[in-house]
Amino acid sequence: MPCTAVDSTFQVLLCSLGDANLYSTAQTPELLWFAVQSNGERPEMNVLTKQVVLGAAGMLILQLAVVASAQEAAPSAVSAPGSSAPPTGKLAAAESSQSQDRTGTVSSISGAITQPGKAGGMGDPAFGGERHPLYRLSKSDTVDLNFTFSPDFNQTLTVQPDGFVVLKGAGVLLAEGLTVPQMQQAVTYAYRGFLHEPEVTVTLKDFDKPYFLASGEVGRPGKYELRGDLTVNEAVAIAGGFTQQARHSQVVLFRRISAYVAESHVLDLKKMLDSRDLREDLHLQPGDFIFVPQSRISKIRKYVPTNSMSWYMNPLQF
Question: Which of 1, 26, 154, 163 could form a disulfide with 176 if both were Cys (CB 3.0 to 4.6 A apart)?
Fold first, then answer.
């Protein structure tokens, strides 16, 4: 039966201590030489042999301990690269998630381009603005409902002053503030209880036309339809132009952003006309309100005699 180095070492020790033959138990050339030398009967040689054997055995045991420790350290060193694998996996997962985020962002942008009612991330959420807003129903608007497979339910609805409409056989529905696609979805859901997959088309028949308001020192203050693309100067001209008391340099344009937020722009129309440069002339949007203030001289003119002031001041200069 084969034996290990440790077993051989113990055999050498036992044989040497028992005065047996060392030839068969010597495992190294050094031990074999000392066994030959100690085969005699001199006691000092036997003592020397025992010391050499004990020293060799200690060295073998020390070498075995070093080898064993090296073998234990080797698996941990091999497993060390594996421990760095999870960060690599995390890095790969992060990169894949970033690529997915970029893909999702591109797809969301492309989807927003095809949807006219979305701002596509370019609007200001604080003001609730939309780049291409759809028309929303308001009071007195009229819509036609046409059912493809159930023409008996075709009807014409008018938004009541409270914002509701009355559906034939389906109760009331809040329509104010809805777009036409939203109105179509709401009507489809309302008739789903007794119609199998109703297919309905909503058509805006009559609505509040786009308009702008002109007030202040203009010839004909009032509400005007906004037809086509108009600027502030063109709107003032439609409203009758400036009066003699108008302050051309501080015309105010009010534009409502939401139900509770409005922005204002102060325009110097006098400078635009004098310089013949209309690049700063803003384009109107539905619902814009133009206000032309009164000039300072016209405010005090009624307290000063006209004859004494006509030689020195011309109100059109202000």
Answer: 163
